[in-house]
Structure formats: structure tokens, C-alpha cells
Amino acid sequence: MTKGGGEEQRKKIPLVPENLLKKRKAYQALKATQAKQALWGKKEQRKGKDLEFKRLEWFLHDAWQQQRDRVRRRLEVKPHGLEVPDDHSLAFGVHIQRINGVSLMVQRTIARLCLKIFSGVFVKVTPQTIKTLRIVEPDVTWGFPNLKSVQGLILKHGQAKVKNKIIPLTDSTVLEEHLGKSGVVRLEDLVHEIAFPVKNFQVMSGLLCPFHLSVAHHASKNRVGFLKEVGSPGYRGEHIHQLIQQLN
């Protein structure tokens, strides 16, 4: 075989059946028509988008709730005698009600605590944290957990945030790597450091993610029924461990 004949054979283009070419052409035309219709649909949707109107009662209710928060914060009398207790050094707050109509200060405080709906965090008891928890009482319930509650939460819902990655605390590798310098190499050590907070509490709690509690599926839809089951937001004292057992 000559050299020229080999090049012609290599350059030969395989033939495509005519029916397959027709199918390809019809498919391309269909996709172009669908893209054009989708584009026109978006334009029509922008033109005919309905305005959302809110009733006057909604604004009145919203203003009433914000005024209630301002008055409550101005009260000098501390409800339930909420000075810093001598026999409690740890508090646990649970966000059980959605933020609707509360003041901007309450929303910012909840965001600073990294609390989302149906989640909880541990807080070291100081005059400042007591004041912070009082601010968020319309949406958050809080109290003083016991050692059993702390252990159950960490063992069942404990997660660590490392380099923007959430890692379940299923073994002691993460603790030994990030908290080994503080003497925490096991989950039992972490439970003890959280339950009896000392100088390393900020480091321990900073590694932990907020605890996402186990809530029934109907809680997000039937808020009134859920609040009847778990109780109202606010201060609970030592009775917070009953709520932890219920949602753990």
C-alpha cells in the first residue's frame, strides 16, 4: 500500500445514518425552543410579579413586641433573683421559638450566641452572660444543667468545628489534636471541663458546635403544640435538665 493511500484511509470520515442526523437536528431544535420559552417565562414573571401587602395588625403586633422587649430590659428588678449564683457555674440555653417581631438587639444577641432554632449552647455563668440570657428570654429557655445532662449532650450530639468542617466527636483523635495542650485527650475529660468550667472553658466551648436537639417533625409546623410539650421560653433553673432529657 502506497503512502498516499494510507493518508486517504486515515482521513476518511465515518458516515452517520440519515435517521440519526434527523434525530439530532430535531433534539437541538427542541432544546433551543425550551430555552427561549424559559427566557420569556422569566421576563413575564418579572413584569407580572405581585406585590406582597402586610395587614396593619401585623405592624401593630410587631411594634408591640418590640416595645415589650424594651420595657423588659429597662426593668431594674431582676426576675427570679437572677444574680450570679454561687452554686452554679454553667448554663445551657435552648432556642425553642422562632425570631418573629423581636427587637434588633434580641436578634443580634441570639446570633452572637450562634443559636439556631431547636439548638442549644453551653455558657459559663458570669454577670455578663446572665444579662445576655435575660435579653433573649422571649425566644430562648435556659437554666443550669447537671453533670448527667452535659454528658448526654456531648456523647450523643457532640460535634467539633475544625477549619470550617463539622466533625462528630466519635473518637478522641480530634480532642487530642486540638485540645491535648489543655490536658483534654478523651471525651470524659471534655465533659468534666464543660460541666465544671475553669480557665480553659472558652477554648473547649469554641471547638464545640451548637447542639442540634432531637425534635419531632411537627414542631416546625405546629409551634403552639410544641410549646405546650416543652414549655414556654424563659428561665428554668435546675429544671432545664428535664427539657434536655426530653429533646436529647
Would you give an account of this structure?
It is a single chain. Helices cover 51% and strands 12% of the residues. It has 248 residues and is α+β, with helices and mostly antiparallel strands. α6 (147-157) crosses α8 (187-195). The longest helix has 30 residues, at 18-47.
Task: Give the termini distance in whole angstroms.
Answer: 82 Å
Q: Please give the share of residues in helix.
A: 40-55%
**Amount of beta strand:** 5-15%
Helices, by number, come to 11
Radius of gyration: 30 Å
Oligomer: single chain
Q: Which sequence of strands runs across the widest sheet? A: 6-2-1-3-7
Structural class label: alpha+beta
Task: Give the topology string: H per helix, E per strand.
Answer: HHHEHEHEHEEHHHEHEH
What is this structure, in a nutshell?
The chain has 248 residues and is of the alpha+beta class. The chain is 51% helix and 12% strand.
Top keywords for this entry?
single chain; 51% helix; 11 helices; two-stranded antiparallel ribbon; alpha+beta
Question: Which secondary structure elements does this structure contain, and how are they paired or packed?
Answer:
Elements: H1 3-11, H2 18-47, H3 56-74, E1 90-95, H4 104-112, E2 119-124, H5 127-135, E3 140-143, H6 147-157, E4 159-162, E5 165-168, H7 173-179, H8 187-195, H9 201-207, E6 211-212, H10 223-230, E7 234-237, H11 240-247
Parallel strand pairs: 3-7
Antiparallel strand pairs: 1-2, 1-3, 2-6, 4-5
Helix pairs in contact: 6-8
